[in-house]
Protein backbone atom coordinates (compact mmCIF):
# COMPACT_ATOMS: atom_id res chain seq x y z
CA UNK A 1 0.00 0.00 0.00
CA UNK A 2 3.02 2.32 0.40
CA UNK A 3 2.44 4.33 -2.79
CA UNK A 4 1.71 1.17 -4.77
CA UNK A 5 -2.04 1.22 -4.94
CA UNK A 6 -2.28 -0.48 -8.37
CA UNK A 7 0.07 -3.29 -7.32
CA UNK A 8 -1.94 -3.75 -4.13
CA UNK A 9 -5.25 -3.89 -6.08
CA UNK A 10 -3.87 -6.39 -8.60
CA UNK A 11 -2.52 -8.70 -5.88
CA UNK A 12 -5.72 -8.38 -3.86
CA UNK A 13 -7.82 -9.19 -6.96
CA UNK A 14 -5.74 -12.31 -7.63
CA UNK A 15 -6.12 -13.48 -4.04
CA UNK A 16 -9.89 -13.17 -4.57
CA UNK A 17 -9.73 -15.13 -7.84
CA UNK A 18 -7.59 -17.92 -6.34
CA UNK A 19 -9.84 -18.29 -3.29
CA UNK A 20 -12.97 -18.36 -5.47
CA UNK A 21 -11.45 -21.01 -7.74
CA UNK A 22 -10.32 -23.06 -4.73
CA UNK A 23 -13.88 -22.92 -3.36
CA UNK A 24 -15.45 -23.94 -6.71
CA UNK A 25 -12.92 -26.76 -7.23
CA UNK A 26 -13.87 -28.31 -3.87
CA UNK A 27 -17.41 -28.83 -5.23
CA UNK A 28 -16.50 -29.64 -8.85
CA UNK A 29 -16.34 -33.16 -10.22
CA UNK A 30 -14.20 -32.20 -13.22
CA UNK A 31 -11.45 -29.93 -11.89
CA UNK A 32 -9.49 -29.63 -15.15
CA UNK A 33 -11.22 -26.52 -16.61
CA UNK A 34 -10.73 -24.70 -13.30
CA UNK A 35 -7.05 -25.72 -13.16
CA UNK A 36 -6.51 -24.36 -16.67
CA UNK A 37 -8.36 -21.16 -15.78
CA UNK A 38 -6.17 -20.76 -12.70
CA UNK A 39 -3.00 -21.47 -14.73
CA UNK A 40 -3.98 -18.76 -17.27
CA UNK A 41 -4.83 -16.30 -14.50
CA UNK A 42 -1.50 -16.85 -12.74
CA UNK A 43 0.29 -16.48 -16.07
CA UNK A 44 -1.23 -12.99 -16.43
CA UNK A 45 -0.28 -12.14 -12.83
CA UNK A 46 3.29 -13.27 -13.54
CA UNK A 47 3.41 -11.11 -16.67
CA UNK A 48 2.14 -8.18 -14.69
CA UNK A 49 4.84 -8.64 -12.01
CA UNK A 50 7.56 -9.08 -14.64
CA UNK A 51 6.55 -6.17 -16.84
CA UNK A 52 5.67 -3.73 -14.06
CA UNK A 53 8.66 -4.74 -11.94
CA UNK A 54 6.41 -5.05 -8.87
CA UNK A 55 7.87 -3.29 -5.82
CA UNK A 56 11.23 -1.73 -6.78
CA UNK A 57 11.90 -4.33 -9.45
CA UNK A 58 11.40 -7.28 -7.06
CA UNK A 59 8.39 -8.56 -9.04
CA UNK A 60 10.72 -10.69 -11.15
CA UNK A 61 11.66 -12.90 -8.16
CA UNK A 62 8.03 -14.00 -7.87
CA UNK A 63 7.87 -14.90 -11.57
CA UNK A 64 10.08 -17.96 -11.03
CA UNK A 65 7.25 -19.79 -9.29
CA UNK A 66 5.33 -19.86 -12.58
CA UNK A 67 7.45 -22.83 -13.79
CA UNK A 68 6.24 -24.99 -10.92
CA UNK A 69 2.67 -23.68 -11.06
CA UNK A 70 2.31 -24.45 -14.79
CA UNK A 71 3.40 -28.07 -14.26
CA UNK A 72 1.14 -28.48 -11.22
CA UNK A 73 -1.96 -26.83 -12.65
CA UNK A 74 -1.80 -27.54 -16.39
CA UNK A 75 0.31 -30.73 -16.45
CA UNK A 76 3.58 -31.19 -18.33
CA UNK A 77 2.09 -30.99 -21.86
CA UNK A 78 -0.29 -28.03 -21.63
CA UNK A 79 2.06 -26.44 -19.06
CA UNK A 80 4.87 -26.52 -21.65
CA UNK A 81 2.68 -24.67 -24.16
CA UNK A 82 1.84 -22.03 -21.54
CA UNK A 83 5.52 -21.72 -20.52
CA UNK A 84 6.65 -21.54 -24.17
CA UNK A 85 4.20 -18.67 -24.74
CA UNK A 86 5.31 -17.01 -21.51
CA UNK A 87 9.01 -17.18 -22.37
CA UNK A 88 8.63 -16.02 -26.00
CA UNK A 89 6.29 -13.11 -25.23
CA UNK A 90 8.31 -12.10 -22.14
CA UNK A 91 11.57 -12.15 -24.18
CA UNK A 92 10.07 -9.86 -26.81
CA UNK A 93 8.67 -7.48 -24.23
CA UNK A 94 11.61 -7.17 -21.84
CA UNK A 95 14.26 -7.13 -24.57
CA UNK A 96 12.28 -4.77 -26.83
CA UNK A 97 12.10 -0.95 -26.69
CA UNK A 98 8.81 -0.77 -24.79
CA UNK A 99 8.34 2.12 -22.43
CA UNK A 100 5.60 0.49 -20.35
CA UNK A 101 8.01 -2.35 -19.33
CA UNK A 102 10.17 -2.04 -16.20
CA UNK A 103 13.63 -0.93 -17.12
CA UNK A 104 15.75 -4.12 -16.98
CA UNK A 105 19.29 -3.89 -18.35
CA UNK A 106 19.94 -6.07 -21.42
CA UNK A 107 22.12 -8.66 -19.56
CA UNK A 108 19.58 -8.76 -16.73
CA UNK A 109 16.72 -9.39 -19.18
CA UNK A 110 18.69 -12.21 -20.86
CA UNK A 111 19.41 -13.79 -17.44
CA UNK A 112 15.75 -13.59 -16.41
CA UNK A 113 14.69 -15.45 -19.54
CA UNK A 114 17.47 -18.08 -19.50
CA UNK A 115 17.14 -18.80 -15.77
CA UNK A 116 13.33 -19.10 -16.09
CA UNK A 117 13.83 -21.48 -19.01
CA UNK A 118 16.46 -23.56 -17.11
CA UNK A 119 14.23 -23.76 -14.04
CA UNK A 120 11.28 -24.92 -16.14
CA UNK A 121 13.39 -27.64 -17.80
CA UNK A 122 14.50 -28.89 -14.36
CA UNK A 123 10.95 -28.93 -13.00
CA UNK A 124 9.64 -30.62 -16.14
CA UNK A 125 12.34 -33.30 -15.90
CA UNK A 126 11.55 -33.98 -12.27
CA UNK A 127 7.84 -34.17 -13.14
CA UNK A 128 8.50 -36.75 -15.88
CA UNK A 129 10.58 -38.77 -13.41
CA UNK A 130 7.77 -38.51 -10.84
CA UNK A 131 5.15 -39.60 -13.39
CA UNK A 132 7.33 -42.57 -14.43
CA UNK A 133 7.91 -43.66 -10.83
CA UNK A 134 4.22 -43.28 -10.01
CA UNK A 135 3.27 -45.49 -12.99
CA UNK A 136 5.72 -48.20 -11.86
CA UNK A 137 4.49 -48.04 -8.24
CA UNK A 138 0.83 -48.18 -9.34
CA UNK A 139 1.49 -51.16 -11.59
CA UNK A 140 3.43 -53.00 -8.87
CA UNK A 141 0.73 -52.31 -6.31
CA UNK A 142 -1.98 -53.44 -8.77
CA UNK A 143 -0.01 -56.66 -9.44
CA UNK A 144 0.34 -57.32 -5.71
CA UNK A 145 -3.35 -56.69 -5.19
CA UNK A 146 -4.18 -59.09 -8.02
CA UNK A 147 -1.85 -61.80 -6.68
CA UNK A 148 -3.15 -61.40 -3.12
CA UNK A 149 -6.78 -61.75 -4.24
CA UNK A 150 -6.59 -64.28 -7.08
CA UNK A 151 -6.21 -68.03 -7.16
CA UNK A 152 -3.34 -68.69 -9.60
CA UNK A 153 -4.69 -72.03 -10.87
CA UNK A 154 -8.23 -71.01 -11.78
CA UNK A 155 -7.98 -67.21 -12.04
CA UNK A 156 -10.98 -66.92 -9.68
CA UNK A 157 -10.94 -64.84 -6.49
CA UNK A 158 -9.25 -66.65 -3.63
CA UNK A 159 -10.50 -66.66 -0.04
CA UNK A 160 -8.92 -63.28 0.68
CA UNK A 161 -10.23 -61.88 -2.62
CA UNK A 162 -13.87 -62.77 -1.93
CA UNK A 163 -13.64 -61.33 1.59
CA UNK A 164 -12.30 -58.05 0.14
CA UNK A 165 -14.96 -58.05 -2.61
CA UNK A 166 -17.74 -58.69 -0.05
CA UNK A 167 -16.45 -55.86 2.13
CA UNK A 168 -16.32 -53.49 -0.86
CA UNK A 169 -19.79 -54.40 -2.08
CA UNK A 170 -21.34 -54.55 1.36
CA UNK A 171 -24.53 -56.52 1.89
CA UNK A 172 -27.19 -53.97 1.07
CA UNK A 173 -29.83 -56.54 0.29
CA UNK A 174 -30.29 -60.22 0.80
CA UNK A 175 -27.61 -62.23 -0.90
CA UNK A 176 -27.29 -65.96 -1.42
CA UNK A 177 -24.22 -67.99 -0.70
CA UNK A 178 -23.40 -71.31 -2.34
CA UNK A 179 -20.65 -73.61 -1.07
CA UNK A 180 -19.67 -76.14 -3.67
CA UNK A 181 -17.26 -79.10 -3.38
CA UNK A 182 -16.07 -81.62 -5.98
CA UNK A 183 -17.08 -85.18 -5.05
CA UNK A 184 -14.42 -87.77 -4.23
CA UNK A 185 -11.71 -85.49 -5.55
CA UNK A 186 -9.05 -87.37 -3.61
CA UNK A 187 -9.72 -90.50 -5.68
CA UNK A 188 -9.70 -88.40 -8.89
CA UNK A 189 -6.18 -87.27 -7.94
CA UNK A 190 -5.13 -90.72 -6.76
CA UNK A 191 -6.40 -92.49 -9.87
CA UNK A 192 -5.47 -90.02 -12.61
CA UNK A 193 -2.80 -87.80 -11.10
CA UNK A 194 -2.55 -84.29 -9.71
CA UNK A 195 -2.30 -82.63 -13.16
CA UNK A 196 -5.56 -84.25 -14.18
CA UNK A 197 -7.08 -83.00 -10.89
CA UNK A 198 -5.87 -79.50 -11.71
CA UNK A 199 -7.44 -79.72 -15.13
CA UNK A 200 -10.81 -80.68 -13.55
CA UNK A 201 -10.55 -77.71 -11.16
CA UNK A 202 -9.85 -75.34 -14.07
CA UNK A 203 -12.74 -76.74 -16.12
CA UNK A 204 -15.17 -76.29 -13.22
CA UNK A 205 -13.84 -72.76 -12.63
CA UNK A 206 -14.50 -71.91 -16.30
CA UNK A 207 -18.02 -73.32 -16.09
CA UNK A 208 -18.68 -71.19 -13.00
CA UNK A 209 -17.23 -68.07 -14.66
CA UNK A 210 -19.46 -68.64 -17.68
CA UNK A 211 -22.58 -68.95 -15.52
CA UNK A 212 -21.98 -66.45 -12.72
CA UNK A 213 -22.18 -62.99 -14.25
CA UNK A 214 -22.45 -59.32 -13.39
CA UNK A 215 -21.78 -58.29 -9.82
CA UNK A 216 -22.12 -61.84 -8.44
CA UNK A 217 -18.96 -63.35 -6.97
CA UNK A 218 -17.13 -66.61 -7.61
CA UNK A 219 -14.16 -67.75 -5.56
CA UNK A 220 -12.02 -70.78 -4.94
CA UNK A 221 -12.52 -71.10 -1.20
CA UNK A 222 -9.74 -73.67 -0.88
CA UNK A 223 -8.69 -77.09 -2.29
CA UNK A 224 -11.64 -78.40 -4.27
CA UNK A 225 -14.17 -76.05 -2.61
CA UNK A 226 -15.76 -73.03 -4.32
CA UNK A 227 -17.85 -70.23 -2.84
CA UNK A 228 -20.39 -68.25 -4.87
CA UNK A 229 -22.34 -65.17 -3.76
CA UNK A 230 -25.42 -64.05 -5.70
CA UNK A 231 -27.19 -60.70 -5.38
CA UNK A 232 -30.67 -59.77 -6.70
CA UNK A 233 -31.75 -63.37 -7.28
CA UNK A 234 -34.16 -65.56 -5.32
CA UNK A 235 -33.09 -68.69 -3.52
CA UNK A 236 -35.16 -70.86 -5.86
CA UNK A 237 -33.58 -69.23 -8.95
CA UNK A 238 -30.13 -69.78 -7.40
CA UNK A 239 -30.95 -73.38 -6.71
CA UNK A 240 -32.08 -73.93 -10.32
CA UNK A 241 -28.91 -72.26 -11.63
CA UNK A 242 -26.68 -74.43 -9.43
CA UNK A 243 -28.56 -77.55 -10.48
CA UNK A 244 -28.09 -76.57 -14.14
CA UNK A 245 -24.34 -76.03 -13.60
CA UNK A 246 -24.16 -79.31 -11.67
CA UNK A 247 -25.77 -81.24 -14.53
CA UNK A 248 -23.56 -79.54 -17.12
CA UNK A 249 -20.45 -80.38 -15.11
CA UNK A 250 -21.54 -84.00 -14.58
CA UNK A 251 -22.04 -84.35 -18.36
CA UNK A 252 -18.49 -83.24 -19.19
CA UNK A 253 -16.37 -86.20 -20.24
CA UNK A 254 -12.72 -85.85 -19.24
CA UNK A 255 -10.22 -88.07 -21.02
CA UNK A 256 -7.21 -89.67 -19.40
CA UNK A 257 -5.30 -92.16 -21.54
CA UNK A 258 -8.15 -94.40 -22.75
CA UNK A 259 -10.45 -93.66 -19.83
CA UNK A 260 -13.51 -91.42 -20.16
CA UNK A 261 -14.17 -89.88 -16.77
CA UNK A 262 -17.00 -87.81 -15.41
CA UNK A 263 -16.81 -85.87 -12.14
CA UNK A 264 -19.58 -84.38 -10.01
CA UNK A 265 -19.95 -81.83 -7.26
CA UNK A 266 -22.28 -81.23 -4.32
CA UNK A 267 -23.52 -77.86 -3.10
CA UNK A 268 -25.12 -76.21 -0.07
CA UNK A 269 -27.08 -72.97 -0.43
CA UNK A 270 -27.77 -70.41 2.34
CA UNK A 271 -29.28 -66.92 2.36
CA UNK A 272 -27.95 -63.91 4.22
CA UNK A 273 -28.84 -60.26 4.56
CA UNK A 274 -27.60 -57.14 6.28
CA UNK A 275 -28.25 -58.55 9.76
CA UNK A 276 -26.39 -61.79 9.08
CA UNK A 277 -22.73 -62.15 9.94
CA UNK A 278 -20.59 -63.79 7.26
CA UNK A 279 -19.24 -66.77 9.23
CA UNK A 280 -22.60 -68.28 10.36
CA UNK A 281 -23.84 -68.20 6.77
CA UNK A 282 -20.68 -69.91 5.49
CA UNK A 283 -21.13 -72.48 8.25
CA UNK A 284 -24.76 -73.06 7.24
CA UNK A 285 -23.85 -73.38 3.54
CA UNK A 286 -21.10 -75.81 4.57
CA UNK A 287 -23.51 -77.87 6.70
CA UNK A 288 -25.91 -78.11 3.77
CA UNK A 289 -23.02 -79.10 1.50
CA UNK A 290 -22.25 -82.00 3.84
CA UNK A 291 -25.93 -82.92 3.91
CA UNK A 292 -25.69 -83.08 0.11
CA UNK A 293 -22.62 -85.33 0.39
CA UNK A 294 -24.43 -87.53 2.92
CA UNK A 295 -27.38 -87.83 0.53
CA UNK A 296 -25.08 -89.60 -1.95
CA UNK A 297 -23.21 -86.62 -3.55
CA UNK A 298 -24.04 -84.89 -6.87
CA UNK A 299 -26.80 -83.05 -4.94
CA UNK A 300 -27.83 -79.48 -4.10
CA UNK A 301 -29.34 -78.71 -0.66
CA UNK A 302 -31.03 -75.32 -0.24
CA UNK A 303 -33.58 -75.20 2.56
CA UNK A 304 -34.87 -71.79 3.69
CA UNK A 305 -33.72 -71.62 7.31
CA UNK A 306 -33.52 -67.83 7.54
CA UNK A 307 -34.58 -67.90 11.16
CA UNK A 308 -31.66 -70.12 12.11
CA UNK A 309 -29.22 -67.78 10.32
CA UNK A 310 -30.62 -64.75 12.09
CA UNK A 311 -30.34 -66.49 15.45
CA UNK A 312 -26.77 -67.59 14.69
CA UNK A 313 -25.86 -64.09 13.53
CA UNK A 314 -27.11 -62.61 16.77
CA UNK A 315 -25.00 -65.11 18.78
N1 LIG B 1 -5.10 -81.60 -8.18
C1 LIG B 1 -5.32 -80.86 -7.08
N2 LIG B 1 -5.80 -81.43 -5.97
C2 LIG B 1 -6.05 -80.67 -4.90
C3 LIG B 1 -5.79 -79.30 -4.89
N3 LIG B 1 -6.14 -78.80 -3.69
C4 LIG B 1 -6.60 -79.83 -2.95
N4 LIG B 1 -6.55 -80.97 -3.69
C5 LIG B 1 -6.92 -82.31 -3.28
O1 LIG B 1 -8.31 -82.39 -3.07
C6 LIG B 1 -8.53 -83.58 -2.29
C7 LIG B 1 -9.65 -83.33 -1.33
O2 LIG B 1 -9.96 -84.55 -0.75
P1 LIG B 1 -10.99 -84.74 0.44
O3 LIG B 1 -10.98 -83.50 1.29
O4 LIG B 1 -10.66 -86.03 1.10
O5 LIG B 1 -12.37 -84.75 -0.24
P2 LIG B 1 -12.97 -85.65 -1.40
O6 LIG B 1 -12.05 -86.74 -1.82
O7 LIG B 1 -13.37 -84.71 -2.50
O8 LIG B 1 -14.21 -86.29 -0.73
P3 LIG B 1 -15.65 -85.66 -0.53
O9 LIG B 1 -15.45 -84.18 -0.38
O10 LIG B 1 -16.18 -86.26 0.71
O11 LIG B 1 -16.46 -85.97 -1.72
C8 LIG B 1 -7.20 -83.92 -1.61
O12 LIG B 1 -6.69 -85.11 -2.15
C9 LIG B 1 -6.31 -82.76 -1.98
O13 LIG B 1 -4.96 -83.16 -2.19
C10 LIG B 1 -5.25 -78.72 -6.09
O14 LIG B 1 -4.98 -77.52 -6.19
N5 LIG B 1 -5.04 -79.53 -7.15
TrEMBL record:
Cofactor list: Mg(2+)
UniProt signal peptide: none
Keyword Lyase set for record: no
SUPFAM superfamilies membership: Nucleotide cyclase
Single Gene Ontology MF annotation: diguanylate cyclase activity
SMART domains, per database record: GGDEF (SM00267)
Record bears the keyword Membrane: yes
Enzyme class, first EC level, given as a word: transferase
Domain GGDEF: 173-305
Transmembrane segments: 5-25, 31-51, 58-75, 81-105, 117-137
EC number(s) recorded for this UniProt protein: 2.7.7.65
Coiled coil start-end: none
Catalysis: reaction(s): 2 GTP = 3',3'-c-di-GMP + 2 diphosphate
Keyword entries, A-Z: Membrane, Transmembrane, Transmembrane helix
A Pfam family matched in the record: GGDEF
Superkingdom classification of source: Bacteria
InterPro entries reported for this sequence: Diguanylate_Cyclase, GGDEF_dom, Nucleotide_cyclase, Rev_trsase/Diguanyl_cyclase
Name recorded for this polypeptide: diguanylate cyclase
Organism taxonomic ancestry: Bacteria, Pseudomonadati, Pseudomonadota, Gammaproteobacteria, Aeromonadales
Amino acid sequence: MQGRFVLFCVLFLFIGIVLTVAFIVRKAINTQPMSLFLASTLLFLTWYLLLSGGAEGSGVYWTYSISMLMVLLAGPKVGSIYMGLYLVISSVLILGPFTFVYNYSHPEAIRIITSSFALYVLILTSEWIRIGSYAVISETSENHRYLANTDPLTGLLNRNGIMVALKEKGIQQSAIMVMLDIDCFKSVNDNYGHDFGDMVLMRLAKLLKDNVKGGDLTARWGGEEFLLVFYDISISATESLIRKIKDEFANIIFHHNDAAISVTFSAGVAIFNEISAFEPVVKLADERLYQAKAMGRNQVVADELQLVIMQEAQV
